[in-house]
Amino acid sequence: MPRRTAPGTDSAAAESLFVSTVRLARRLRQVADARLTPSQHSVMMSIHRHGPLTLGELADLERVAQPTISRVVAKLEGDGLVERMPDATDGRVVRVVVTPDGAELLEAARSRKVAWIDDRLAQLTPEERDHLLAALPALERLQALP
Questions:
Q1: Would residue 92 count as lying in a domain?
Q2: Secondary structure, 3-state, the chain
């Protein structure tokens, strides 16, 4: 089946960007704490950024089914990285928050990843760094598109 590309795009550029981002994401996962799977890390980051969240809100953010998010949260809760708490306005609603241990784990992983990137940026030429930094707004827009 032929690959579909949007008008005005270059499929070779799209392929290169895909391969580069997948490889970079893989390298960054290798630098992160091995205690968390990529799914668990993503869930914790969503809770940390947007929380406290209901399981339904979290499932929507992660784009997974609620039973899947329930299993991930149960594992993280069992590890002491997140906890469930009643909603402040509706006691029937339960929200999930990151515990202090969970926040510490996320910050340590983030610090390792940023240090890894910083080390690699230092190995680039000034021109390569400038090109990469100039592309950041477009990359941020690309990932934010629906």
A1: yes
A2: CCCCCCCCCCHHHHHHHHHHHHHHHHHHHHHCCCCCCHHHHHHHHHHHHHCCECHHHHHHHHCCCHHHHHHHHHHHHHCCCEEEEECCCCCCCEEEEECHHHHHHHHHHHHHHHHHHHHHHHCCCHHHHHHHHHHHHHHHHHHHCC
Rounded to an integer, what distance in angstroms lies between the CA atom of residue 51 and that of residue 76? 15
Residue 21 CA to residue 3 CA, distance in Å, equals 19
Provide the residue range defining the domain that includes 120: 37-144
| pLDDT digit string, tens, across residues 76-89 | 999 999 999 999 89
Question: Which residue is it, tokens 């968390």?
Answer: 36
Output the pTM of the full model.
Answer: 0.77
Decide if 21 is inside a domain: no
Q: pLDDT at residue 6 above 80?
A: no
Report the number of distinct structural domains present in the chain. 1
Q: Taking a C-beta distance cutoff of 8 angstroms, is the pair 44, 38 a contact?
A: no
For the purposes of burial, counting CB atoms within 10 Å of the CB of 4, is it exposed (0-12), middle (13-18) or buried (19 or more)?
A: exposed
